[in-house]
Write a structure and sequence with these properties.
The complex is a heterotrimer of chains A (327), B (399) and C (289). Chain A is mainly alpha-helical. Chain A has one domain. Chain A is built from 15 helices and four strands. Chain A has a two-stranded antiparallel ribbon. A two-stranded antiparallel sheet of chain A has the order 2-3. Chain A is globular and about 60 Å long. Helices cover 38% and strands 21% of the residues of chain B. In chain B, the strands form two sheets. In chain B, strands 7, 8, 9, 10, 11, 12, 13, 14 and 15 form a nine-stranded mixed beta sheet that branches. A six-stranded mixed beta sheet of chain B has the order 2-3-1-4-5-6, sandwiched between helices. In chain B, a hairpin with a 2-residue loop joins strand 2 and strand 3. Chain C has one domain (15-217). Helix content of chain C is 72%, strand content 2%. Chain C contains eleven helices and two strands. Chain C has a two-stranded antiparallel sheet with strand order 1-2. In chain C, helix 1 (3-34) packs antiparallel against helix 8 and helix 9 (221-235) packs across helix 10 (240-260). Chain C starts with a helix and ends in a 10-residue tail after the last helix. The relative contact order of chain C is 0.20. The chains are: A mainly alpha (327), B alpha/beta (399), C mainly alpha (289). The interface between A and C is large, with 41 and 38 residues. Chain A: The chain crosses the membrane at residues 85-102, 109-126, 162-190, 210-230, 250-275, 287-305. Chain A: Keywords: Cell membrane, Membrane, Transmembrane, Transmembrane helix. Chain A: This is Benzoate transport, inner-membrane translocator. Chain A: GO terms for molecular function: branched-chain amino acid transmembrane transporter activity.
C-alpha cells in the first residue's frame, strides 16, 4: 500500500480546503452530507489499516465503529470531547482485543467468517439487551466542545459548520497518523505480512502479535469514527454495528483503491455521492448499488485510486514502480 | 399515486424542486413565503419494505382528509412531499435530513417503524418542526422524550395491552404468561398487560421472549403447558403474528390456554392465520363493526378513493391530517407561530372514526380501547376493554 | 426441569439443526473445493423460500415446490458458477466478499420487484396439517416432523453420494487437496460446477422446506447465513461430516439456550464458537485435527 506522493498530498490538501469552505458555497443540506461522508471516510480509513496494509479482510469492523458511537451514549452526558473521544477509542480497542485474539487464530476466509460472527454477536448485544437502549436506538447528547476551561458554545444555526470542520480535522489527523505509521518498522512488518506471512515469520517476526496490534489499532480508529458519527447525528442505533455496514466499508475501500492509503477517502466520497444520486434517480437504490459493485469488481479491481495511479505512472516512473510491485 | 392528489408534483418535478430549494437556501429566508406559498408537509413513511401497505394506507387517508378540505389548511394550499423511509433505521437520520434540510418540509408526519420514528422525534425536538406520529407506538415519544412539538394520533404500546390485561382480569383470569419479541414495543406492551391484569385482579407469572424478529417460537411454546395458566397474552405483529398464532394452535395449546393480546396480533393477518385465529380476543383502539356515523362515512369514502378497505392505519393517518388541520386553522396557516399552533393541537378534540378523542398532557390520544374477537376474517368489536384510557405519560416534562 | 418439556425442546433443536445442515453443507463445500466465500448463500435460501411461496400460491401445492427448488437450484447454481463465480476463484477475498454482497443486493431487489416486500405465510400441505401429540400437554405439527425426516434423508443421500460415487470421491479429493485434482486428471471445471450447483440446490431446498415454518420475508436469509458461518467455523471447513455435527450442536445449543437461559439466549452459539476457536481453531471436525 502506498502513501500518496507530494503532488497527491497537495491535491488532498486542496480538496480538504474546498470541503472546509463548503459552508460558504454549498447548501446546509450538502454541508451535512459532507459530514456524513467524512465520518464514512474515517471508518473506511480505519478498515484500510487491516485490508490494504495487512491483507486482513474483516467483516466485523462495524462493531467497533458502533461501540465507539455507543460509548457516547454510555458515558455521562456533558463531558468534554477531549475525554469522550479517547474513551470511545479505548472502549472500541478493548472490544477489539479479545475479538482479534480469537479471530487471528484463523486465517483467510476463516478469519472473515469469525470476525463476521463476533461482529454480529456484538450487534445482538446492543440489539437485544437493554445495555444500549434496545433495537430502536437512542438519542445521545453531544459531547461538549471544551478544553482547558474554555467552553465553546455552538448556536444551533452554525452547528453543521462546526461539525464539518471538526470531522475534517479528525479525518486529517487520522490520515496523517496512519501515513506516518506506514513509514515505521510496524508499517513495513504489516506490508511484509500482506505479501508473505510465512516469510515474515521465518524472518523472526511474531506475525500474530503484529496483526493483533493492527487489529486493535484499527478497532480504536473505528471507535473514533463511531464517536464522530454519534457526535454528528446525536443518535445511535444497533444498525451501526451490523455487518452490512462492514461490507459497505469494504466497498468504499475497493471503490477508492486497495493500493493507496488515501483510497478509502475517495471511496467514501464516491459511496456517499452514489447513494445520494441513486435516491434522486430511482427508488431502487439497492439495484444501483449492486450493479455498481459488480461493475467495480469485474472491470475496475484497482478502484478510483488505481485510475489515478495509471495517470501518475507515466509521469513519475521511479516511485510508483515500487508501489506497483505490491499486489 | 405517489404524490398528493391536490398538488400533483411528479417525481422528476420533485427533483427539480429539490434543486431549486438548494439554490434558494443560500439566500436569506424570505418572510413572504410563510404567507402566500404552499405549506410543505413531509410524509416520511414506508412505501417499500415490510410495512409498505401500512405506509400507503396512512398516506392515502391523510391525503383524503386534505382533499376534503379542498387541499388547504389554515387557508394555505398544502403540498405533500412523500419520502420512503423503507423502515430502515440505518438511514433514518439521513432521510429526515433530506425532508427538513433539502426539501424544507415545515411539518412532519411519520412513521410506522419505532426505530425510524426516533430520528423524526429528534428533528422535532432539535429543530422545532411539528411532528405527528401516525403509528409508531414507542412510549418514550410521549413520555421521557415528549416535546411541545411532538404529537401522536395512534397509540402508545402500553395502551392496548393494558386494556387487554384489564379485560382479562375482570373475566376472572388469575395466572397469565406474556409472550413477545424481546424489544421495546413488546416489553412496553408487556408492562401495560401486567399493570392492566393486576388492576383486574390477576397476575403475570412468566414472561417468555425471543429476539426480534425471529420466528422460532417452539422453545417458548413448549414451556407453556407446564405453567398452569388461565391465559396467554402476547404482542406480535405482521408475519410474526401469523406464524405465532398458527404455531400456537398447531401445538394444541389453543383449546387448553386461551390466547389473547394487543390488537396487532390479528390486525391485517386474519386471512393468513385462518382457523387458527378464530375466537382469539384482542384489544385495540379500533375494530370492525364499530358503529358510529363518522366511521361509516369514513370507510365508504376511503373505499371509493383508494379502492380498498380502510383499516386502523388509515384511521391514524386520517386523524393526523385532522389534527394538523385544527392546528393550522388556529394560526391561519402561519406555521411559524409555534406556541399557538401547538396549543391549539394540544387542546384539539379530534372527531375520529374510532370515536372522538382528546390528547393527554403528553400529546398521546385519550381513547377507548375496544375488546375484539376474531370471527370469520374480521376483528369484531365485542365491548370496551378500557374507557377513555390515557397513557400514564411517566417522565414527561414539557420544556 | 420437566422431562417432557425437555423432550420437546430436543426435538426442536434437532429440527432446527438439520435445516442448518442443509444450508451450511453447501457453504462448507464451496469453501473447501473452490476457496470462495459466498455471502449470497443466505439469499439462495431466501430465494428457495419465496419460490415455495410463489408456487404454493399459484398451484396450491407445496409438494411441487420441493422438486422445483432442487431442479431450479441446480440450474441456477450452475449458471451462477459459469457466469460469475468461475472468474473469482483466484481473486482476493475482498473481491469475493463484494461480488457476493452485490448479489445479495440484487437478489433482494429482484425479490422486491417480482413478489413485493410483504411478509407472507405459506400453508403447510393439507395432508400434513395436523398435530402429533409428543407429550401429554404438547403437540408437534406433522409438517415439522416431515421436515425432520426429509432433512435426514438428504443427509443420508449426501453421505452416500460423497462416499460411494466416483464424482463424490473426486469432490472429496478436491475439498481436501485442491491441488491434487489436476494431478489426478480430474476435470476441475466440472467438479466446481457440480459442487456449486448442489450447494445452491441444497440452500434453496432448505428455504422451500422452511417456508411454512418461518414464513417468508425480506432479508430472511441474513440470520441463517451468519449462523451457517458459525456452523462451518465450529465444524471445520470443507467437511460435510463437520457441517452435520456442527449444525446439530448449534441447533441444540441455540434452542436449549433460548428455553432455559432466557436473556443470554442469542449469545450462546457465539460463546460456543469462541470456545471452539480457543480449543481447536481448525474446527471440531477438521481433517487432521
Amino acid at each position: 500500500m502506498i502513501v500518496a506522493s507530494r503532488a497527491g498530498h497537495a491535491a488532498l490538501a486542496l480538496a480538504a480546503l474546498a470541503v472546509a469552505l463548503m459552508p460558504l458555497w454549498a447548501s446546509g443540506y450538502h454541508v451535512q452530507l459532507a459530514s456524513t461522508a467524512l465520518v464514512a471516510a474515517m471508518f473506511a480509513l480505519s478498515l484500510q489499516l487491516l485490508v490494504g496494509a495487512a491483507g486482513m479482510v474483516s467483516l466485523g469492523h462495524a462493531a467497533f465503529f458502533g461501540i465507539g458511537a455507543y460509548a457516547v451514549h454510555l458515558l455521562p452526558a456533558g463531558l468534554s470531547i477531549l475525554f469522550t473521544l479517547p474513551a470511545s477509542a479505548l472502549l472500541a480497542a478493548a472490544a477489539a482485543l479479545p475479538v482479534g485474539a480469537l479471530s487471528l487464530r484463523t486465517r483467510g476466509f476463516f478469519f472473515l467468517m469469525t470476525t463476521l460472527a463476533f461482529g454480529q454477536m456484538l450487534f445482538f448485544l446492543f440489539h437485544d439487551t437493554p445495555l444500549g437502549g434496545g433495537k430502536d436506538g437512542v438519542f445521545v447528547s453531544r459531547p461538549a466542545l471544551e478544553a482547558f476551561g474554555f467552553a465553546f458554545e455552538v448556536p444551533r444555526r452554525s452547528r453543521p459548520t462546526v461539525l464539518l470542520l471538526l470531522n475534517l480535522g479528525v479525518l486529517a489527523a487520522m490520515y496523517a497518523g496512519l501515513a506516518a505509521l506506514m513509514g515505521t518498522l510496524f508499517g513495513h512488518a504489516l506490508r511484509g505480512i500482506r505479501e508473505n506471512e510465512d516469510r515474515m515469520r521465518a524472518l523472526g517476526y511474531d506475525t500474530r502479535r503484529v496483526k493483533l496490534a493492527a487489529f486493535v489499532l484499527a478497532g480504536a480508529l473505528a471507535g473514533v469514527a463511531g464517536h464522530m458519527s454519534a457526535m454528528t447525528e446525536a443518535f445511535v442505533n444497533p444498525e451501526l454495528l451490523g455487518w452490512h455496514r462492514s461490507a459497505e466499508g469494504l466497498l468504499m475501500i475497493l471503490l477508492g483503491g486497495l493500493g493507496a492509503l488515501h483510497g478509502p477517502i475517495l471511496g467514501a466520497a464516491a459511496f456517499v455521492g452514489l447513494g445520494e444520486a441513486a435516491t434522486l434517480l430511482t427508488e431502487r437504490r439497492r439495484l444501483v448499488e449492486g450493479l455498481v459493485i459488480l461493475a467495480v469488481v469485474l472491470v475496475l479491481p484497482r478502484g478510483l485510486a488505481g485510475l489515478r495511479l495509471g495517470l501518475l505512472r507515466r509521469r513519475e516512473p521511479a516511485p510508483v514502480a515500487a508501489a506497483a510491485a505490491e499486489p | 399515486m405517489r404524490d398528493s392528489a391536490n398538488t400533483p408534483v411528479p417525481r422528476r418535478g420533485l427533483v427539480a424542486l429539490a434543486g431549486a430549494a438548494v439554490l434558494a437556501e443560500a439566500l436569506p429566508p424570505r418572510p413572504a413565503l410563510a404567507q402566500g406559498g404552499p405549506l410543505r408537509v413531509g410524509l416520511m413513511l414506508p412505501f417499500s419494505g415490510t410495512f409498505a401497505a401500512l405506509g400507503e394506507n396512512i398516506a392515502a387517508a391523510f391525503e383524503m382528509h386534505l382533499a376534503e378540505r379542498g387541499g388547504r389548511m389554515g387557508g394555505r394550499p398544502v403540498q405533500i412531499i412523500r419520502l420512503d423511509d423503507e423502515s430502515n433505521p440505518a438511514n433514518a437520520v439521513q432521510n429526515v435530513n433530506r425532508l427538513v434540510s433539502r426539501d424544507r418540509a415545515e411539518a412532519l408526519v411519520g412513521t410506522v417503524h419505532s426505530g425510524v420514528v426516533m430520528a423524526l422525534v429528534q428533528a422535532a425536538r432539535e429543530r422545532g418542526v411539528p411532528l405527528i406520529i401516525p403509528n409508531a407506538g414507542n412510549v418514550a415519544a410521549t413520555r421521557e422524550l415528549c416535546s411541545p412539538t411532538v404529537f401522536r394520533t395512534s397509540f402508545s404500546n402500553w395502551q392496548p395491552a393494558y386494556g387487554m390485561g384489564l379485560a382479562l382480569g375482570k373475566q376472572g383470569a388469575k395466572r397469565a404468561a406474556w409472550v413477545t419479541w424481546d424489544y421495546a414495543a413488546g416489553n412496553e406492551a408487556g408492562e401495560g398487560f401486567r399493570q392492566g391484569l393486576a388492576a383486574g385482579g390477576g397476575e403475570v407469572v412468566r414472561e417468555l421472549k425471543l429476539p426480534f424478529p425471529e420466528t422460532n417460537f417452539q422453545p417458548l411454546l413448549a414451556q407453556i403447558p407446564g405453567l398452569s395458566l388461565d391465559a396467554v397474552g402476547s404482542f406480535f405483529a405482521g408475519g410474526g403474528a401469523v406464524q405465532f398464532v398458527r404455531e400456537y394452535a398447531a401445538a394444541g395449546l389453543k383449546e387448553r390456554v386461551p390466547l389473547c393480546g394487543s390488537g396487532f396480533l390479528t390486525e391485517g393477518t386474519l386471512q393468513a392465520q385462518g382457523a387458527a385465529a378464530e375466537g382469539i380476543r384482542t384489544a385495540l383502539h379500533y375494530g370492525d363493526g364499530l358503529d358510529n356515523p363518522k366511521n361509516t362515512a369514513f370507510r365508504r369514502a376511503f373505499r371509493e378513493r383508494a379502492n380498498r378497505d380502510a383499516d386502523v392505519y388509515a384511521v391514524q393517518g386520517y386523524d393526523a391530517a385532522q389534527l394538523l388541520g385544527i392546528g393550522l386553522d388556529a394560526v391561519r396557516g402561519d406555521i411559524s407561530a409555534e406556541k399557538e399552533l401547538t396549543r391549539a393541537m394540544r387542546g384539539a378534540r379530534v372527531d375520529s372514526p374510532r370515536g372522538a378523542f382528546t390528547l393527554s398532557p403528553s400529546h398521546n390520544p385519550v381513547q377507548n380501547i375496544y375488546l375484539r374477537e376474531a370471527r370469520s376474517g374480521e376483528n369484531r368489536v365485542v365491548g370496551v376493554a378500557a374507557e377513555a384510557l390515557a397513557d400514564p405519560g411517566t417522565g414527561c416534562r414539557m420544556s | 426441569m420437566d422431562v417432557s418439556g425437555l423432550l420437546a425442546q430436543v426435538l426442536n433443536g434437532l429440527q432446527y439443526g438439520l435445516l442448518l445442515f442443509l444450508i451450511s453443507s453447501g457453504l462448507t463445500l464451496v469453501f473447501g473445493v473452490m476457496g470462495v466465500i459466498n455471502l449470497a448463500h443466505g439469499s439462495l435460501f431466501m430465494i428457495g423460500a419465496y419460490a415455495a411461496f410463489a408456487i404454493t400460491r399459484l398451484t396450491g401445492a407445496l409438494w411441487l415446490a420441493l422438486p422445483a427448488a432442487v431442479a431450479g437450484g441446480l440450474l441456477f447454481g450452475a449458471l451462477l458458477e459459469r457466469v460469475l463465480f468461475r472468474r473469482f476463484y483466484r481473486r482476493e477475498h475482498l473481491d469475493q466478499v463484494l461480488l457476493t454482497f452485490a448479489l445479495i443486493l440484487l437478489f433482494e431487489e429482484a425479490r422486491s420487484a417480482l413478489l413485493g416486500n410483504d411478509f407472507h405465510s405459506v400453508p403447510a400441505p393439507a395432508v400434513l396439517d395436523f398435530s402429533v401429540p409428543v407429550t401429554a400437554a404438547f403437540s408437534y405439527s406433522a409438517y415439522r416432523l416431515a421436515v425432520l425426516a426429509v432433512c435426514l434423508l438428504v443427509a443420508v443421500l449426501m453421505f452416500l453420494g460423497i462416499e460411494r460415487t466416483r464424482l463424490g470421491s473426486a469432490v472429496r479429493a478436491a475439498a481436501e487437496k485442491p491441488e491434487m485434482v489436476e494431478l489426478l486428471g480430474l476435470d476441475a471445471r466440472r467438479i466446481h460446477m457440480v459442487v456449486f450447483a448442489v450447494g445452491t440446490a441444497l440452500a434453496m431446498l432448505a428455504g422451500a422446506l422452511a417456508a411454512p415454518l418461518q414464513s417468508v420475508y425480506p432479508n430472511m436469509g441474513d440470520g441463517f447465513l451468519i449462523v451457517s458461518f458459525v456452523v462451518v467455523v465450529v465444524g471445520g471447513v470443507g467437511s460435510v461430516a463437520g457441517a452435520f455435527w456442527g449444525a446439530l450442536l448449534i441447533g441444540l445449543v441455540d434452542t436449549l439456550g433460548k428455553a432455559y437461559v432466557p436473556g443470554a439466549a442469542g449469545l450462546a452459539v457465539y460463546v460456543l464458537m469462541a470456545a471452539v476457536l480457543l480449543w481447536r481453531p481448525g474446527g471440531l471436525f477438521a481433517r487432521g485435527a
